[in-house]
Amino acid sequence: MHEKPWVLHEPLQVLESADEPYLQSARGRIGAHELALHHAPETPDGLRVFLDGELVFEQGQATPGVAWYQLCRDLGYQPEDHWDLDPALILFHQALPALVRDWREHALPYDDLGLPEGVVCLATVAAAWEGAVGGLDRSDPGAQLAAACFQALPLRAVVFHDDPAPREDYVGTGVDEPLVGIFMQFGGSRESCVTLAKATVNGTGGLRWSPWEPGGDWAAEGREWAATQGPADFLAAAGLGEAPAGFAEAFQAALSALAGQMDPVVDGYRRAYPARIPWHRDTRTRFLNRMIVEVRSGARLMLVLDDGSEVEVVDARLRRD
User: Which one, of 67, 82, 78, lies nearest residue 34 by Cα?
Assistant: First the structure.
């Protein structure tokens, strides 16, 4: 649960820890920031987390406060690059367990997902996806193959892309609110990643889930969202071979069933995310001032940057004007 790599540019240094029966506490440093934890097990809001002296989480909240999200962004966290993590999981699965490693009196008040009760994060969405896939129809061979396909594709990331450009909604009506692109990424590896996405206004309603890939700075490039993957891509990513005749219908039926269960979960996750954090960085700026730390050869030549991003090398001589 806590074995994912530490993706922030600054390490967590534990400064002090006190393991008392009625008030446990710990304090650490991440770069220029101080993270403190107080746990009073006999009180309803017994778990409290402070960042630079300001309360960023107490028991009962759905997510840490905006200051923690901003710290994660400033120190390199990117949802499209760092699978299986979001700011809440960095805090609850990594930072807090490191702070309390010497506690023996009381354990952190966590549920089965390793989270304080009521927290909404990537882990809760992934658990909902796993449960929804487990309940898919398997009454005929096509449905069985579609269910096996989704079963082999774990949810790895949920990326929100706020598009500030004025647009028309999905029936052609002009909207003043920015559209929000929601991307769910699935797969066992980057090379076989597939994506489900939809566009919404303020995170509610909008288009149905479709096999879309995220683009770059769409507003600047003047591009529209388009279906860039299909059922065969999902089947190949799952390692189940080529799609037989009729599989597309079974895939769409399974996807519709999954969407009905995942919509409220993902919308709840969106509402829990603090506003005003610009997560998406367009392709022109997101790689500026990054250092290449590894060159990975294979079917595609990849540059690995110091924030975990992977950039495919394209021969400029092959590019079209």
Answer: 67
Do the bridges between strand 302-305 and strand 310-312 make them parallel or antiparallel, or are there none, so unpaired? antiparallel
3-class DSSP state for residue 27?
Answer: strand
- Predicted model pTM: 0.78
DSSP 181: E
Helix (H, G, I), strand (E, B) or coil at 182: strand
With CA atoms as reference, report the closest residue to 229 among 190, 194, 257. Answer: 194
Query: Is residue 197 within 8 Å of residue 181, measured between CB atoms?
Result: yes
DSSP β-bridge partners for residue 161: 181
Q: What is the full DSSP assignment across 95-141?
A: IHHHHTTT--S----B-TTSSBTT--SHHHHHHHHHHHHHT---SSH
What residues does 241 pair with on adjacent strands? Answer: none
Closest by CA to 99, choosing from 47, 46, 37, is: 37
Token pair for residue 172? Answer: 């052609």
Q: What is the pLDDT of residues 128-161, one digit of tens each?
A: 999 999 999 999 999 999 999 999 999 999 988 7
Q: pLDDT of 248-275, one tens digit each?
A: 999 999 999 999 999 999 989 988 887 5
In DSSP terms, which residues pair with 183 in a beta bridge?
159, 197
Neighbouring-strand partners of residue 201: 179, 204
